[in-house]
Design a protein that fits this description.
Elements lengths: L20 E7 L9 E5 L2 E5 L2 H14 L12 E9 L18 H12 L10 E10 L4 E8 L1
Parallel strand pairs: 4-5
Antiparallel strand pairs: 1-6, 2-3, 4-6
Helix pairs in contact: 1-2
Length: 148
């Protein structure tokens, strides 16, 4: 995990007191959560998830499966997410921050939704959230989940 990490709130007990903590990496370019689409079939409108979003969620679930707990975590959770993508070669060297689309909240939404039911019962359990998007040579998403 990155060295410049945020300290968790003071209410967290030390790791030696049976507190759950998971860290893992999902390799590949981070994909934002797409908005649901509507298709009309005759007189009926059907909502569906875009193919790219569905595939990205499936890939996230597949790569994270070996790290999931035996049963979803209970109670309050803190989540840290780092999204990395390769900087375009056309960008000047002085550009070091990823300030272009996709929006950080859409990247976060896909990651949290993909972990729903596997790592926790519902993302409403997340009471602390720290998210960063940066450039790096290896596109990936780093995840850190802690029970608070």
């Amino acid at each position: 995990m990155p060295e410049n990490t945020l300290n968790w709130s003071g209410n967290m007990k030390p790791n030696n007191q049976e507190r759950a903590r998971m860290e893992f990496t999902i390799f590949g370019v981070p994909v934002p959560k797409g908005r649901p689409r509507v298709a009309c079939r005759g007189k009926f409108a059907t909502m569906y998830t875009p193919k790219e979003t569905r595939q990205a969620e499936e890939d996230f679930i597949r790569q994270s499966a070996e790290h999931k707990p035996k049963k979803p975590l209970e109670g309050s959770l803190g989540v840290m997410l780092w999204f990395y993508k390769k900087k375009p070669k056309s960008y000047p060297k002085k550009v070091t921050q990823w300030t272009t689309k996709p929006d950080i909240d859409n990247l976060t939404k896909l990651a949290l939704d993909a972990m729903n039911g596997l790592f926790y019962h519902d993302d409403a359990q997340i009471i602390e959230l720290y998210v960063v998007k940066k450039y790096d040579e290896i596109p990936r998403t780093e995840v850190n989940i802690r029970k608070l």
